[in-house]
Amino acid sequence: MKRTIILCLVLFCTLISCSPKVYPVQSCNLVVDQNNTITLRSSGFGKQKVEALDAAERYALETILFRGVPGSQYSSPLVGINEEQAHQANPRYFKEFFENGRHKSFIMSSVPVSDYSWTKYKAWTISADITINVVSLRKDLEQHGVIRRFGL
Amino acid sequence: MKKTILAALLAVVTSSVAFAQDPTSAPSVQTVQPKIMVIPYTKEGEDIRTILESDVNKRIVLTKIKEAFDSRGFTTVDFTAKLKAAKDNNIFTSDNQTDLKAQIVQMSGADVYVEAEDDVLLSSTGNSVKIIVTAYEISTGNSLANKVGESNKFYTDDIGKLASKAIESCATDFLNVMQEKFTDIVNNGRSIIINFGFDANSGYTMSSDVGNQGLQLSDELELWMESHAYKNNYHIQGTTDTQMIFDDVRIPLKDPTTGNNYNTNKFALEIFKFMRSLGLTISRDIKGNTIYITIK
C-alpha cells in the first residue's frame, strides 16, 4: 500500500513538472496615432475590474515612456529604454506619477473593449483602448527635467 | 534657545540650497541653441524664388514643418524672410540657382537646415502627397534626421491639405530623431573640422621636427588632439607633407572648468596657444564649425 502511494505521488509530481508553464503576458498595440494623441489597446490583470483597468492604463503609459510603439510616430520611447536608470534619476517624479495616480491626468479616455474575464493565465483580465495626450505628457516630462527640451 | 534652533535650521537649509547647484553649469548660463532654417528642395536650374512664390503647397509644407518646431518650443530662421531680405539687398552675385540657395543658407547664419521635398501623386483612385524631409548640419554635412511622410490617398484636389497630412505623419518622429542627435552632441560633444596647412613661404612641413620632444609636427598635432578632443573623440581624414585634416573633432558644449558656453573660436584659441608653445607662427580662419590653420 505504502509503495503504491509513494509511486502515485512520484508519478503525480512528474506529471505536474511536465505541464507547460504559462506566464501572463500583457499586450499593448497601436490603434490610432493622430492629432497629438495616441490610442493603444492595452490589457491588464487585476483581482477587480477597476484594478485590471488601471494596470492596462499603466502598461500603456509605460510602453510610451520606456518602450516606444512601433508603427507610430512614437517608435522611440519618450524617456528611454533604460527604465531602471530613469526611475533612479527621477524617483520623486515617477513615484508621484505611478503610485499617487498622476498618470491618470494624461489619459484622455479609457474604453474597455473586452469583458472582465478569467484567462488561461489563471488571472482576471480586461482590454481597453487607452488614449494618451502625448504632447502634454512630453511637456510635463520636459518641465520636470526628466527629458531634455528640444535642442542642445 | 528657540533662536539658536531657528538659526541652525536656516543654516542647514541655506547650505543645502548652495550645494544643490552644479558648479560646472551655472544656472545663468544658457546653452547657445543651433539656428535651424527650413528650406524647399529645388532641382538644378530651378528658380527658388519663383517656385516658392508661385507654389502655395510648398509654402504650406515649410509652414507645417516650422509649426512642428514651434510646438516643441524651438524658433526657426524664416527662409522666406531671408529670401526677401537678400532680394532687397541684392546680395545674389550669381544666376546659378544652386549657388543662390547656398548663398541664402550661408548668409542666414543657420547651423542646421531642413530641406523639404514634396511629390504630388494624382491618380483615378485618389490623390496623395509624399514629403521627404532631411536635416543636415551645414558646416560638417552630418545628417541629423531623414523621414518620408505620406498622406495616403484621398478623393480631393486640396493638395495643401494632403501635404499637411503627409507632414503630420512624420513630423514628430523626425523631431525625435533630431533630438536624439542633439542629445548625442550634448553627451559626446559638437563635431568640428580642423584643417592644418602651410603658407606658401613657410619653411615648415608636417615632417619637420618641432618642440622639445624631437617629434614631427604631425605627431605633435595628433598628441595634442588626443588630449584635447572631447572624450578623446577625433578622426584624421589624412596627412600629407603639406596638409593635415581632422574631419571630426569633438569639442564640449560647455567649458568643463567654468561652465560657460564653449565654441569653435575658443578651441581655435587653444590651438593657437599650443602652436605658439611649439615656436610656430600661425594665422587662423574660422568658418562655421571649420577651423583653418595656416602655419607661416
Mean pLDDT of chain A: 86
The count of DSSP E runs of length 2 or more, i.e. the number of strands of chain B, is 11
Radius of gyration of chain B: 25 Å
Class by SSE composition of chain B: alpha+beta
User: Describe the biggest sheet of chain B?
Assistant: 5 strands, mixed
Give the oligomeric state: heterodimer
Helix content of chain A: 40-55%
> Cα distance, first to last residue of chain A?
79 Å
Structural class given helices, strands, pairing of chain A? alpha+beta
- Give, in order, the helices and strands of chain A: HEEHHHEEEH
β-strand number of chain A: 5
| Helical coverage of chain B, percent range | 25-40%
- Report the uncertain regions of chain B: 12-25
Outline the biggest β-sheet of chain A. Answer: 5 strands, antiparallel
Beta-strand share of residues of chain B: 15-25%
Describe this entry's structure for a reader:
The complex is a heterodimer of chains A (152) and B (296). Chain A is of the alpha+beta class and 152 residues long. Helices cover 41% and strands 22% of the residues of chain A. Chain A is built from 5 helices and 5 strands, in the order αββαααβββα. The mean pLDDT of chain A is 86. Chain B has 296 residues and is of the alpha+beta class. Chain B has helices spanning 2-19, 48-54, 56-71, 79-88, 97-108, 159-168, 171-188, 217-228, 264-277, and strands spanning 36-40, 112-121, 128-137, 143-150, 190-198, 209-210, 215-216, 234-239, 244-251, 282-287, 290-295. The longest helix of chain B has 18 residues, at 2-19. The radius of gyration of chain B is 25 Å and the shape is globular. Chain B starts with a helix and ends with a strand. The A-B interface holds A 34, 73-76, 135, 148-152 and B 31-34, 69, 71-74, 168-173, 175-180, 182-183, 185-186, 253.
